[in-house]
Amino acid sequence: MNIHARREEIIRIVREGTVHSQDELLALLRKKGFKLTQPTLSRDIRELGLAKTPAGYVAPGDLASVTPITTFTPIEVRQERLEHLMKGSIKFAEAAGNVVVIKTPPAAAQPVASALDATPPEDALGTVGGDDTIFVAFRHAGAATAFARNVQQIAGLSTRRSARA
Amino acid sequence: MNIHARREEIIRIVREGTVHSQDELLALLRKKGFKLTQPTLSRDIRELGLAKTPAGYVAPGDLASVTPITTFTPIEVRQERLEHLMKGSIKFAEAAGNVVVIKTPPAAAQPVASALDATPPEDALGTVGGDDTIFVAFRHAGAATAFARNVQQIAGLSTRRSARA
DNA sequence: TCTCTGCGTGCATGAATATTCATTGTTTTG
DNA sequence: CAAAACAATGAATATTCATGCACGCAGAGA
Q1: Assigned architecture for domain B75-155
Q2: Chain B partners of A128 at a C-beta cutoff of 8 Å?
Q3: What pTM did the predictor assign?
Q4: Which fold has domain B3-66?
Q5: Who contacts B161 (Cβ-Cβ below 8 Å, separation ≥6)?
Q6: Across the interface, do B139 and A96 touch by the CB < 8 Å criterion?
């Protein structure tokens, strides 16, 4: 019935505290007024992609959520950091329209996105990073392709290549 | 006996392929010559901090990659999961240039984005998911509109027609 | 309105994982 | 060289989690 509200609450609970079993989570949900049983919870957990670790359940989105960044680091340091990051953590970069898509190893997208955000390329409008993917939006397609080429060069990628690994 | 070698091997196995149960992992270890039983493996897993996700066990450092349901899940399973998720958790889908924007209920974006990432649509470059919004970038605007339409249909959204009886 | 269909759910149960307890092999200590 | 102290393990078992099945409710269409 209130399946979405329920799942939202599950995420919230798991983000805030530590839950070691479904029964425990079940109790918390019931305390909040949700009426459900363990099998339903099990299905919710599967759908949400929650992982069970020795330290309790964790939400995958915890590490993949979009985050805007601002920094006060001196610009030359930022430049350096950006290049360094790009050299090591970029597996793929391609322009599509006025957007550039960059692929990194798992969990590496956020640092790169942060650095990009701190030192925006020419004509860049904004950046969002997921877990292993970054989008950079530009005003013009031309700026996008130029930036993509630039990234490919710095990262040492052949200008034509497929990602995923 | 060679507890360290064994645990290293466990990490290696989990990094390379996908393992869905301890029994499965147990069999792999035995094939490699290790002699142990499930309880021991359970303890190893706890010590190593491995997490069990709907997509199998993952190493702690790879926890962020919980996201990719990717790995080696059979394609038909992924397809099914994706369709299922789309049916229930998509409120809006529209193409804008070569990007498709998808809206979901709160907290539902990550699972859908994961599934999308695991079964990329034709000509898709990458996916980024926030809390209730997903961006999917395509090589061409055409692919984007096609995908948007497809999503709308599967999700049961009115594609534009005004119908009512 | 009355089907028909499909989704969400709980119940019962099977499968997977964690734990208790006893045993064995190994290191430390007298 | 015992013998105690400890660590690693397996067998049995408890606990936790997943799933097949059936039911009820809600929306689409006749």
Answers
A1: 2-Layer Sandwich (3.30)
A2: 128, 130, 135
A3: 0.69
A4: Arc Repressor Mutant, subunit A (1.10.10)
A5: none
A6: yes
